[in-house]
Structure formats: structure tokens, C-alpha cells
Amino acid sequence: MTYVHKTIAIEAKSLTKKYDDLTAVDNVSFSVEEGELFSVLGLNGAGKTTIIKMLSCLIKPTGGDAIILGNSILKNQYKIKQEINVSPQETAIAPNLSVYENLEMIAGIYGFGKPEIAEKTESIIKRLKLEEVKNKKAKKLSGGMQRRLSIAMALVTEPKVIYLDEPTLGLDVLARRELWSIIKEMKGKTTIVLTTHYMEESEALSDRIDVIIKGKDKMIGTVDELLKNTNTNNLEEAFIAINEGEQ
Amino acid sequence: MNMKCLYFASRNRKEIIRDPLASIFGIIMPIVLILLFSLIANASTEVPAEVVEMFNPIIITPGLTIFGISFITMFLGGLIAKDKSSSFLSRLFVSPLKPKDFIFGYIIPTIPIAFLIAICCTVAGIAIGMPISINILFVFLSYIPYIFFASVVGVFIGTIANESQVLVFGNLFVIGGAFLGGMWMNITALGGTFMAISVSLPFYHAVEASRLALSGEFAGIWQHLGVVIIYALVFFVLTVIFFNRKMKSDNK
Description:
The complex is a heterodimer of chains A (247) and B (252). Chain A has 247 residues and is an alpha/beta fold. In chain A, 38% of the residues lie in helices and 26% in strands. Chain A has a 6-stranded mixed sheet with strand order 6-7-8-3-9-10, sandwiched between helices. A 4-stranded antiparallel sheet of chain A has the order 2-1-4-5, covered by helices on one side. Chain B is mostly helical and 252 residues long. Chain B has one domain. Chain B is 81% helix and 0% strand. In chain B, α4 runs parallel beside α8, α4 packs across α11 and α11 crosses α12. The longest helix of chain B has 29 residues.
């Protein structure tokens, strides 16, 4: 058997974020391989979004560093920003612009030329099945379609690394399953860091999972590894066991 | 100016012009006021001469154009505040846009919008008797510093305030500016404290510069425009400082 060496796309090294007396993220370290889907699983307020914000250069860590595609989040923010994109937890779209215009605008601000913008926009509309609503104003879309547009806006620039912060939060079961299939389709092509508090989502999508409790990473591994290490039968039980171990 | 900034500017232009309130307040309201004041002045032969003079098209057209342009502050402040509250701005902060791209991306689209307001008001002014002359071109040029000032204040307010606060600051800017600047009538003769306050602010000077340009009295224009330009530059510097601080505070 040949060992396939994969390049590390993200390496978080003792990432820490403190707000006065509150430590939101405490010494978190992990690495994500190129093309891997890495989940950060935790309850609300565990520090998942703060990790994403640090990795996307939106906030600075108070300690530690992360290397994204060979660049430090402390030193080479603009280099990193050119290669990444994010789908924030809240649906972040321009309401008075059509679906097409939203995507075109994002591709434009990432510096692509006109022909590339048109090509990328059309391609992502097709890929995320947005053809029927492409000329509709974003504010008139359903919640599920707005979220799909928000993810399309993160994908249109064809980032090497994408952060999906609670991508299915507030969606109904059908919209959630549709988004899952879109995310599954991205696996292997793009490095994905996904935050979620839904166990089944993490289990269905992730190559590996980082369980975060109160800002600290408690256990990292594949679903099978987490079950084995906690001697449990499903991810929910494993999560509870890890949580109880913490208390 | 790079293309990234222009794509962002294009988005902001679309957001503003597709907001029906922008057309109602920025264009329709000043036109209605121009026509209304003209009706008052021409209501009957018994209207006192000073009222007729107060609502002379040469006086009210440039003033109400400046009034219409003032709404840009409100549109822009509101747009930025909405972008902040909806996480849209956070999404853009992750993009390779730099602080200068954001500031100019918000300011640039206001230029064509402001000139559209000016064109509509000028047509209304001509309809009520404002003479057509080459001076109209100079009036348009005299609007430029105020357009810049109103835009920069819009970005400033949007940066420091939330959506409901923007409404308060925006209204203060538009209504306060209209009264203190004599946008609806000539206030030069008022004197006293009111006039002292008026001359210390840019609104009166923007209106006076445009009225002088329309009358062809170019000698006194620069001292008025100078005040507007100074205010615009001061607010531009403040905007750069506060916008950078906003990006950095999100970066903490």
C-alpha cells in the first residue's frame, strides 16, 4: 500500500482568544489536510465562531497563530484573504441585488476579470441549482434559498479554503439535506472547516471532528475514533461522554 | 481606483437606487417643494413682494437641490448600518478589500445619484422660471464639495452608529442643515445668533456658493466653497480614522 502524503492546508497552533476575563478560545490546536472536511463541533457559545473568525483573519488571536496555505494569520492577512472565503452564521447577502448580481459582486471584489466573473457566476448558479431564481432579488428568496445563495457567495471565488459557520442553522429538514448534498459534493476539492452543534450533521459530513467544550478542544478524530475512545455507540453519546469527562 | 473597489461601489449604487425611499426623499420631495414654493409665490397678486422674492426660482432651486443631496447622508449611513447589522460587512471584511476600498466604494456611487438629483431639481427650477444659462454648469460644479461632504458624513455616521441612531443623526443632518443653511429660503438678512451658527457650518456656504454661481457672481464663491471643502476634509479624516478603528475593533 502506498502512503499518499497530503499537504496541510490549515495548522492552528495554540490559538487563544481572550475578552477581558472571558477566554473564548483556549489553546486550540489542530491541522486540516487539503481537501478535508474538518468539523468543529460544540454547543452554542463553545467558541466555534471565534475560531472561524480567527482563521478567516476577521479577529486577531490573543495567543498562538494559525498557518493557512503557508501564510500566518498574524502576518500575511491579505495573502490569506485572497485564497479563502466564508459563509457566516447569519445569512449575509445584499438584499436589493439579484442572485446573479450578488455572486458577480463577490467575484468582482476578489479581483477576477470580467470574463472570469461571468464564467464563475454561471458555473456556481448551475452547481448550486440557483438557475430558477438567478434574476430574483435576494430579499425575496426563502430562508433556505438565501442560505444557499450565501454559500454560493463563498464558493464563487473558488477558494482553496472555505469556512462554513453553522451552515444549516434555522433551516428545515429538507433544506438542510439539500445543503448537505452540496457540501458533500465540495469534499475533496476544497478544504472545508465547518462549525456545527448538530451531531448528525457533523457525523454525516465530516472526515474528522474537533469536539470543543468551553473554548478548549477536547478530542479530535474521525467518528469511529471518537466512538472508540469514548467507548460509545454514536456521536451524541460520545459528545456527552466527552462533556461529562470535562465536568 | 481598483476594480475591486468599483465592483463594491456598483453594489452600493444598486442598493441605494433600488430603495424607493431614496427616490421619494432625494428626488420627488425637493421637486414637490420647488413647485409648492413657486405656487405660494404666484398664488395671487396680493402676495407680498418679499415673499415672491424669497421663493424666487434662483433662490429656491439651488437651495432645494442641496437639500435633496443632503439625503445622501441618510441613504449611505443607513446602508452601512444595515451592512453592519446583517453581517454583510463582516463577510466583506474577510475579502481582500482594504479600508480605502470600503470608504471610496461607499462614496463613489453617491456622485451620479447626487447629479441625478441636481438634474431633476434644475429641470423643475427651469419649469418655474429659472433662467437657462451657462451658469447652470457652474452651479453643478459648485455642488461637488457638498456632495463629497454629504457622502463622507454618511459613511462616518454609518460607521459609528446603528440603524436607529443613523435615522436620528441623518434627520438632524437633513433638517438641521436645511434650516441653518437657508435651503428653503434666503436667511442672509436674519443676522444674530442664528446667522452666527449658520455661517460656522457648511450648509449655508454650500447654498450660498450655488446661488452665487447661478447669479454669475463668481468672485465670492471660493470663500464659501472653502468652508465646505474644509468640513469635507475634516470629516474625511475622521471617517478614515473611525472606519479603520471599526475594522480593527472587529479584529480584536
